[in-house]
Structure formats: structure tokens, C-alpha cells
């Protein structure tokens, strides 16, 4: 009987000691997955800008959709907030970023549009709130607003 109690106590103690490392690993996994999602959106922007011609009439503009998947499951940390925003750095007139918050911590930002893009990027009616669990669909549209501009909007 004493062996069982001691075994349980040791198991609980080991679990308590390992929890902070597990939470850190989950946060790192979530960061990596959201960086991969931003890369997918970035590739979609680049593909649309390089393979299409911008036009001034938005109804005739080349368009595509991309799905942003919020990480979930046992290996991912809980995301409190996820949004597509315009970057806040001074001098960034165009571009986009994923901003998210994990477990009540600080806001984190992953830049989406590369510095040397063939078109500028505009978040329409931004910031765009995305689902913290599951998928959010975005529409990318290539218009001509003082040069080629990829407009990003959320699809319902």
C-alpha cells in the first residue's frame, strides 16, 4: 500500500515539475504553426501578384482564396485572440501581419507580406478577426490603386 501511495506522489511531483516545460513547448509549436500559416498567405499574395494583371474595377479583379487554420489539439497552446492586421512599424505603408495572443500573455506578431513584394498589400476594413479554433477563409483581390495592390478581406 505504501509503495502505491509513494508511486502516485512521485508521479504527481514529476507532472508538476514538467508542466512549465510542456506549456513552453506548446507555445513554441503554436508560434511555428502560425508562422507556417503566414507563409502560406504570403505565397498566395505573391502568386496572385505575379500571375495576374491589376485592374481598377474591383469586380473584374483577379482573386483567390486562402484558408488560415488556427493551431489546435494537444500540442498547441490555447489562442485567446487571432487577427489579420496592418503592421505597426513606422514606414510600413502596406503589408499585413497575423497578431495573436497565447494564454493571456503578450500580443505576438508575424509579418505576412515580404518587403520586396510585386504589389502592395491592404487589409480591407482591418483588423480582421480570425477564428481562434478552426479555419478562417480570406479573399485576396488584385486591384490597381496607384499601382498593383492585393486587398485582403474575410469571407464568411
Automatic annotation (TrEMBL):
What Pfam families does the record tag this protein with?
Answer: DUF7311
Q: So which domain of life are we looking at?
A: Archaea
Q: Which residues form the DUF7311 domain?
A: 1-150
Protein name, per record = DUF7311 domain-containing protein
Q: Which organism is it from?
A: Halorubrum persicum
Amino acid at each position: 500500500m505504501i509503495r502505491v501511495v509513494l508511486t502516485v506522489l512521485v508521479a504527481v511531483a514529476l507532472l508538476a515539475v514538467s508542466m512549465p516545460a510542456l506549456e513552453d513547448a506548446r507555445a513554441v509549436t503554436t508560434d511555428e504553426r502560425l508562422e507556417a500559416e503566414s507563409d502560406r498567405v504570403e505565397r498566395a499574395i505573391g502568386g496572385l501578384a505575379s500571375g495576374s494583371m491589376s485592374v481598377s474595377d474591383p469586380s473584374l479583379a483577379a482573386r483567390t482564396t486562402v484558408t488560415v487554420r488556427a493551431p489546435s489539439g494537444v500540442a498547441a497552446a490555447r489562442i485567446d485572440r487571432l487577427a489579420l492586421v496592418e503592421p505597426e512599424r513606422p514606414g510600413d505603408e502596406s503589408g499585413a501581419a497575423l497578431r495573436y495572443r497565447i494564454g493571456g500573455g503578450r500580443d505576438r506578431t508575424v509579418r505576412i507580406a515580404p518587403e520586396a513584394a510585386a504589389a502592395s498589400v491592404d487589409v480591407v476594413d482591418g483588423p480582421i478577426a480570425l477564428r481562434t479554433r478552426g479555419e478562417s477563409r480570406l479573399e485576396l483581390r488584385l486591384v490597381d490603386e496607384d499601382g498593383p495592390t492585393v486587398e485582403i478581406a474575410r469571407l464568411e
